[in-house]
Design a protein that fits this description.
With 274 residues, the chain is of the alpha+beta class. It has six helices and 17 strands. It starts with 13 loop residues before the first strand and ends with a strand.
Length: 274
């Protein structure tokens, strides 16, 4: 039987200060058109083969059909971005459509270094545009690499992407206390209840396990706020950890007999037990 467990937080605590986050402007990244039209077999091969692509809308279905503008025909649920990569292995251009074959790709993290792992077979069918140029459709369907997925990941991934993949992103302005122990008589929060994280289906299938580190602020009411991924492991497990940690409840940190918000990190372990 598969099971997961979490360890109680290893506190790396500091008194929470007001943090001003500058909004990142990602609009320029939403659609980055190619200079040359994507009309010929050679153009399409150059665009799609041997590229670390991702599905822009993170569709879960492995057989997808699109109209000439790159809009999905039919419905499909979504997955997290660490399960939404694709390696294209074959591109076939015909008079009426473009057929793309490949493998869905997951992302795992080893010491913050992302690595792509092949999952299930995929096929995509795109209707031919009237002018034969597939550029717009491909821009609507694919993202060129992991760094360009930044606008399409949830809030708890944004800081990680800014720190690891977006060298030209504006810095986050934050008032930090000096290194070392927290100044003053601050008593750390005490965990009162926690939720067990769930394995993602893909991680279970691949017998993949590990430990992710989730950062958060334990507020004065003992509830976790501003959750974020600090050290990921991938394959959907980090997002499952976020969902579990969001249900934690604490006795808040205390300073001078008053509750105060503090920042802590929580290690969440995923293990398969049979």
């Amino acid at each position: 039987m598969a099971a997961s467990r979490c360890t109680h937080y290893a506190v790396k605590m500091r008194r929470y200060r007001v943090v001003r986050h500058f909004a990142f402007c990602w609009l320029a990244l939403l659609f980055v058109p190619f200079v040359h039209a994507q009309k010929t077999q050679a153009d399409l091969n150059a665009r799609l083969l041997n590229k670390p692509l991702f599905l822009r809308e993170k569709w879960v279905n492995d057989k997808l059909k699109f109209d000439a503008q790159g809009q999905l025909l039919g419905k499909s649920d979504r997955v997290v971005f660490t399960l939404a990569g694709i390696d294209v292995t074959k591109v076939k251009l015909s008079s009426g459509q473009l057929n793309i074959s490949g493998r869905r790709v997951g992302v795992i993290f080893e010491h913050d270094a992302p690595r792509r792992v092949a999952l299930d077979d995929m096929s995509l069918e795109i209707a031919a545009p009237s002018d034969g140029d597939y550029t717009h459709a491909l821009d609507a369907i694919f993202v060129d690499d992991l760094a360009h997925m930044s606008p399409f990941v949830p809030s708890w991934w944004q800081q990680y992407f800014a720190e690891h993949f977006s060298s030209d992103s504006p810095a986050v302005s934050e008032s930090k206390p000096p290194p070392g122990k927290v100044r003053g008589a601050v008593k750390p929060p005490v965990l009162l209840s926690h939720a067990e994280p769930r394995f993602s289906a893909i991680a279970r299938k691949l017998n993949y396990s590990g430990t992710t580190l989730i950062g958060m602020i334990v507020d004065t009411d003992g509830a976790p706020k501003k959750l974020r991924v600090v050290r990921p492991i991938g394959l959907g497990l980090d997002d499952q950890a976020i969902a579990a940690v969001n249900q934690y409840r604490f006795k808040p940190a205390m300073e001078n007999n008053l509750p105060v918000p503090v920042q802590v990190n929580v290690e969440v372990h995923f293990e398969l037990k049979y």
